[in-house]
Amino acid sequence: MHKVMIVEDDLKIASLLEQAVQKYGYNTFVVQQFEKVLNDFKSFDPHIVLLDINLPSFDGYYWCRQIRQISTCPVIFISARTGQMDQVMALENGADDFITKPFHAEVVLAKINSQLRRAYGEYARHQSERIVEQAGLKLYPERLQLTYEDKVEDITKNEALILELILTRFPKVAGRDDLLEKIWDENAFVDENTLNVNITRVRKRLKSIGMDHAIETVRGVGYRFRVDE
Amino acid sequence: MKLFLREHRSFIALQFVQSVIMLTILWFAQMRDLNILLYVVFVHFFLAFIYMLYYLVTRRRLYLKKVEQLEKSEEVMSFLGYYPLPEHIQEMLRIQYKKYETEVTLLQSKQEQYMTYVDLWAHQMKTPLSVIELMAQEADEPLSSELREEVGRLKEGLDMMLHMARLRTIEHDFSVKNIDVKKMIRQIIKEERRLFIRNKMMPELDLAEDVRIVYSDEKWLYFILEQLIHNAVKYSSGHGKYIKLSTFKRQKTTVIAISDEGVGIPKQDQKRVFEPFFTGENGRKFRRESTGVGLYIVKEICTFLNHEIRIISDGSNGTTVEIIFK
After folding, report:
1. Mean pLDDT of chain B
2. Beta bridge partners of A30
3. B316, CA 20 to 30 Å: which among A90, A219, B94, B293?
4. Model confidence at A125: pLDDT above 80
5. Predicted ipTM beyond 0.95
6. HEC states along A30-74?
7. Is the CB of A126 inside 8 Å of chain B's CB atoms?
8. E strands of chain B, at which residues?
9. Which of B117, B118, B120, B174 lies closest to A81, judged by CA?
10. β B202-207/B176-180 pair status
11. Is residue A95 within 8 Å of A75, Cβ to Cβ?
12. Number of other CB atoms surrounding residue A169 within 10 Å
């Protein structure tokens, strides 16, 4: 399991980031003492570091340089500074990527995943292939497969995207706009109908592996996964 | 010269009065030789003339200065001559100039402080916004979407503020290069997909094959297009479904056009939409937190980058905005 170290002095953000990262099954460590970031780094030995630029005592650039002297592990900067110079500085000081606030949790996770893949190879990724599971239904978003009990069903990219969101949102409702955003395509822009069609298809897939009525419609709001007791 | 004569009107009049008095006195003193009388008058006027000439020459810097041509404050301060009056005037000007200069410097530094604060504040607000955004993602629908919509508005406002602040220093903050417009337009649409989805709108692309590169600043052009797309969506939500983005060549220029099927811009407002803080009829009617700043910034950037911006609207059915690259 990969370890993620979070260096962020805003406690709210740090804890929200922690939650988001833990959801994806990573181990996390949130730095509390900003004078001893390097000690924490040595003892926790993370696979990847999320680093804010503005920190008490030394800034993120400094810590990045310190980390670089002992490790090549990926470092992603998270900062409110959007200037080109700040990004250049970050990269010059040894960072691998840069995310500007305010950010979307998904962007952070996508970047973490991509850095981990790059740094630790496909092997590591294979070891920890993502599985979204809910009530015995397993979705493999990377190989586009769905399993329930002993039945297997191949699905399309869009279906996987929709189902992933609905499953991860459970027991909450997945919003229509969020679903549309997920399947938005650069070449063919989607509208309500595209979503309706895709939802119908997902329902068919689920039905064919024995999960009928697993997705319920919440009118005007979105869709929710339903687990029968 | 006129000034000099005007100022010496009374002096000249005095000379005449004096001559008359002198002649009268001499006349009554039985001095009736016409030649001598004329000679006295001549000497009198001659001396007066010499005096005035001397006065004019020595104070020429004061009298012959062409006030209309003065432009810079330093020109006003230029040397007037070493005579009591010019020195006195010069001293007054110098004191006044110094006073104003201190005042201006003070105001400038205050303004500078204020701008720094605005910039800092806008950046600091991004952290709480991130927190709200992340928390909103955890909430159930429809609350989650509604919260994020509001966060989006705040984000947009902050972004506008930062650009407004940055506009002041645009001359140090741009780099013109070749930009792939197609790529940029696609990127903006992808970034702004939430805006389209939320307003139930669809982008429609009509990008000509022969248009690929424009010469502009990437960051500012991105802001311009983003702003225009935002406006197009805001003012056509509920009226039309499509926002058409097209690029094409016209004569020797390249054009990016953004058309909507929205409420249009009334004729009387069209000339004024680029004025700062002008919100117009629609801005007020639709109450879409129009600040009247967006198009002002867009126009300023266009002027700076030497792009032409044109608004075409019949006042009710849709608006087309064209950016023309020469």
Report:
1. 88
2. A6
3. B293
4. no
5. no
6. ECCCCCCHHHHHHHHCCCEEEEECCCCCCCHHHHHHHHHHHCCCC
7. no
8. 176-180, 202-207, 213-217, 242-250, 253-259, 307-313, 319-325
9. B120
10. unpaired
11. yes
12. 23
